[in-house]
């Protein structure tokens, strides 16, 4: 997960029972258009806060679910960051 965060320029990732929050280093992302499309495709599951953090809501009550969900989201975000928009 840490390597994926580095590739996606994620400065801080917080995951809890209700979901996760991503903060980007310098509030910038390599492919902002791709990120906006990804957030829009998630529907009510993901949104951008006023402080430019991405919030992904999910049911992560169990630690195993939290790790699996975080890994899945970070793989998608890192893949988007690798594509130039």
Description:
The longest helix has 20 residues, at 63-82. The model has no long low-confidence stretch (mean pLDDT 94). The protein has one domain (2-82): Aspartate Aminotransferase, domain 1. The chain has 3 helices and 4 strands; from the N terminus they run αββαββα. The chain is α+β, with helices and mostly antiparallel strands and 85 residues long. Strands 1-2-4-3 form a 4-stranded antiparallel β-sheet. The two termini are 23 Å apart. 20% of the residues are buried. Helix content is 42%, strand content 24%.
How would you briefly describe this protein structure?
This protein has 85 residues and is of the alpha+beta class. The protein has helices at residues 2-7, 32-41, 63-82; strands spanning 10-16, 19-24, 46-48, 54-57.
Shape: globular
Given as residue ranges, the uncertain stretches (5+ residues, pLDDT < 50) are none
- Domain module tally: 1
Helix content: 40-55%
Overall pLDDT score = 94
| The CATH top-level class label | Alpha Beta
Number of helices: 3
Strand content: 15-25%
Radius of gyration (Å): 12 Å
| Main beta sheet | 4 strands, antiparallel
CATH topology label:
Aspartate Aminotransferase, domain 1
CATH homologous superfamily caption: Transcription-repair-coupling factor, D7 domain
Q: What is the number of E strands?
A: 4
What is the chain-wise order of helices and strands? Answer: HEEHEEH
- List the strand order in the largest sheet: 1-2-4-3
Structural class: alpha+beta
Per CATH, which architecture?
Alpha-Beta Complex
Terminal-residue CA separation: 23 Å
